[in-house]
Model the fold of this input.
Amino acid sequence: MPDTIRPSRLASRRVRPRGLALAAAALALSACSGEQAVNAPASADAERVANLWTGFLAFSSFVFALVIGLVVAAMRTTYTEPARPLSVQRGWTLVLAGGVVLPLVAVVGLVGSGLWIGGVVARNEPPPDLTVEIAGKRWWWEVIYRGEDGAEIARTANEIVLPVGRAARVLLTSDNVIHSFWVPTLQGKTDMIPGRVNESRLTPRETGLYRGQCAEFCGVQHAYMAFVVEVIEAEAFDAWLADQGRARAIPDDPLLRRGLAVFLEADCGTCHAIRGTPADGGMGPDLTHLAARETLAAGTIPNTKGHLAGWIGDPQQVKPGVLMPATALRPDDQEALLAYLGSLE
Ligand code: CUA
Done:
């Protein structure tokens, strides 16, 4: 008989756990298809890692079911039939086959397939079409695009733009503690180790926005060390890169001019560079195209005027432990600075 839902039942306590279970299921499923999911690969390498994971899960499930089945069978035999002792030879055969050979084959198979996939991914084929240097900072990502001659084309932070279908060689390093570069939809993790340059390869086969995250505990803001990889068409990428390489002219507009003056007087240029201006600091993110970025502080807050004002005024409030000092400004100076930074597209 069909069960009709009466209005009174909607308010009853029985509905709540079902709602919670639905919400939990929706949350769990959304984690499987989002922009940061191992099992939603957008590159051949990520697909290999995803297949490896599926293989491990399937095999482990099979072994689990087998062991449970044997336990149940043994219990049924024990309780339903009189004891029948095994011969010594059969006993040994069982122990060797089930306790030594099978586990050995399973472990060698699992470890071997993991090493094999690791080797395939690390071969870094085909030859790269472009090189991107990425450095792990406290707690953000510096991104440098280099030409074939090794010369720097553009420098940005926290938002990596890549062309679809081209292989990007990614050189990873750190000048502080160990971080780990991880874009689950595009590639496995690679550590960023001070004094070393580790190499990875990103060859996205679909355009889209993919979230990345530091995967090695690196201090109090480790969880807020995020980034995005935006994969766009190859022609659009070429245009984007050319634009990112563009330096800034000193603005004509009086308000923007004053904003730049405030930036320089407040010593922001000691840590930040704005190419084309006297600001050439290398400690913090390059701000030449700051206004084109979606977020501030490595994915922590949206890049809006209000958030930017709060970030400049009191970075510790937003991201405790961050290296950026607070800068107190008069309201009109702040307005000019925000207008200038907002013009850096
Ligand atoms: Cu950087 Cu965790």
Notes: The longest strand covers residues 130-136. The first helix runs from residue 7 to 10. The two ends are 64 Å apart (CA to CA). Residues 136, 139, 179, 214, 216-218, 222, 225 surround dinuclear copper ion (CB under 6 Å).
